[in-house]
Amino acid sequence: MYIKKLFLLLNKIKKKNLKLAIAESCTGGLISNKIIKINGASAFFNTGIICYSNESKVNILKIKKYTIKKFGAVSKETCKEMTKNILKIGNANVSIATTGIAGPGGGSNNKPVGLVYIGIGTKKKIRIYKFKFNKDFGRKKIQHLTFLKSIFLLNKNI
Known about the structure:
By secondary structure, the chain is α/β, with parallel strands linked by helices. It has one domain (about 1-155): CinA-like (Maf protein). It has six helices and five strands, in the order αβαβαααβββα. The chain has helices spanning about 1-15, 30-35, 55-60, 65-70, 75-90, 140-155, and strands at about 20-25, 45-50, 95-100, 115-120, 125-130. A five-stranded mixed β-sheet has the order 2-1-3-4-5, with helices on both faces. α1 runs parallel beside α6. The longest helix is centred in the last third of the chain and has 19 residues, at about 140-155. The chain starts with a helix and ends with a helix.
């Protein structure tokens, strides 16, 4: 089912002559991997970066140290910077960014396992979406749901 939706989205991106860049943390390259499995992805997919550590977010994605210190790596603010910066770094018209806690550990009362932020960026607008997936889904399913939501949201915003 998702393959058909992904294929339709990628055709839409190609028809609009858009270039896509993706910054992934909690999905660890899953979104990029699913996209490059589609024949012809090189026509529109410019860049995919996995920045899992805070250090890589700062050094590669140019996230402000202050942002991570004040709000945390899993936050609306960090996701917004990821989404905006990958547009520039990836020389793209549209972007996806993901940051979250897929589990099974790493959660807290304020930021539980299953908390995910997805950013969708265009040259005109950056939108950040917050999801609280059920922690009992497990790591793999939370990552997969984040991929599905990312594709849906990108399609909705372009």
